[in-house]
Amino acid sequence: MGAQDSFDQAEQFLESTGTESLTMIWDESFETWSYYGVRGQPAALLVNAKGEPIQSWLGAFDVDQVLELARAA
Q1: Cα separation, 4 vs 63, whole angstroms
Q2: Could you tell me which residues come within 8 angstroms of residue 68 by beta carbon, excluding any fewer than 6 positions away?
Q3: CATH number of domain containing 67
Q4: Which end of the chain is more exposed for a tag (fewer CB within 10 A), N or C?
């Protein structure tokens, strides 16, 4: 869920991490942050198609783990 950088920076992040096939939520209002309990940045949250959290990370995360979890979801 992005909001602190620009949308272009968020798209570049997806491309540089190889995660551009995942859907990123862009919410400048921070409502989704509150909904999912995200308290700081950097953080990552992977949700399934129903919007249910699968895994969350505060700080750095392993891109391979994210992709593995996403494939299994």
Answers
A1: 20
A2: none
A3: 3.40.30.10
A4: C
Q: Is residue 48 part of a domain?
A: yes
pLDDT digits (tens, 9 = 90+) for 50-60: 989 999 998 88
Distance CA 33, CA 42 (A): 12
- On whether the CB atoms of residues 45 and 56 are closer than 8 A, the answer is yes
Q: What is the C-alpha to C-alpha distance for residues 64 and 17, in angstroms, rounded to an integer?
A: 9
Q: Does 2 map to a domain? A: no
Q: How many domains does the chain have?
A: 1
Split at pLDDT 50, 70, 90, the class of 69 is: very high
Which range of residues forms the domain containing residue 20?
7-72
